[in-house]
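Progress narrative, work stream C.
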Amino acid sequence: MRPDGARPTIIGPDSGPEAPFPLRMKGEVISGFGRGSKEVYMPLSIFLSREERKNKRMDEPKERKKADRKAQLGIPTANIPVEGIPWIEDAQSGVYFGWSSILLPPTHPDLSPRPTSALLPASALDAGWRVYPMVMSIGYNPFYKNTVRSAEVHVLHQFGKDFYGSEMRVKIEGYIRPEYDYVSVESLVEDINMDIEVAKSSLEREGWRELGRDPWLWAAEGARE
């Protein structure tokens, strides 16, 4: 249950993240669970391990029912695998924030208009990369009664179309709060909206905004993997 009281509006020192951050993960976006943006208003990507995807297929009718219910709420969702991510199993459950990048297909509507103050160089923009702030939860999402631990990324951008099959990269810069169960959708939405504002305010600082210029986010040659 969420504790009472005011929440911090800024995370971390102005100079930038502290250890163990940043944390990185990447993969191809595949079809996912579904969640409801009519309630929470944000695109969502879900990272699943191979075993989690296997279990999801084994219980497909039940998962489809969950997906249908969540899809009625309107949040587009996607999955990318987490094999080879050394830190994910030991990560503390809760809400994180940072930067996400997506290599959009040539026909994707969000390639136009071209950003005028982009974090990326012209060559990355030409290739189809776009960088957005994100909020990410790691855990079971008690409100939705998830039975597998997953990493769900909320990309802070309203997309005109899904981006299944695209390469996605996530660079986690900090930790916002633990995960909670909620008594209502309204209280969930309130906390998610606060998470978004905390992420935006934290990343707007110069020492944090520059982290969105990391060449790793657009797979630049020679960038750290």
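Work stream C, second folded protein:
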Amino acid sequence: MGRFKEIIDKYGKSSSSSSNSNIETKPKRRTAEEIRDKYRKTGADASSAAAHARDKLVERNEKLEKLSLCTEELQNGAENYSSLAGELAKEMENRKWWKL
């Protein structure tokens, strides 16, 4: 249970927590002009387009790795919680009513 709390504290439940500023939960709202400026190409040569695509691919890969790590940690926490709940259920099942 402690590990699950560590994961929740580390990654947070919502975007309201200031400690998890490195995880984006909602996209930033942009104006049409901001979008045009971002995608307007000043250097229209193929090498700059390839470099830009490669940079985006690396960025996407990093985000997927973070997501995979978080998913794995949450799954491990859920398995630990499940086994603890099972042990507790067996313990309570074997207890006598007069020992409660």
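The radius of gyration is 23 Å. No further action is required on this item.
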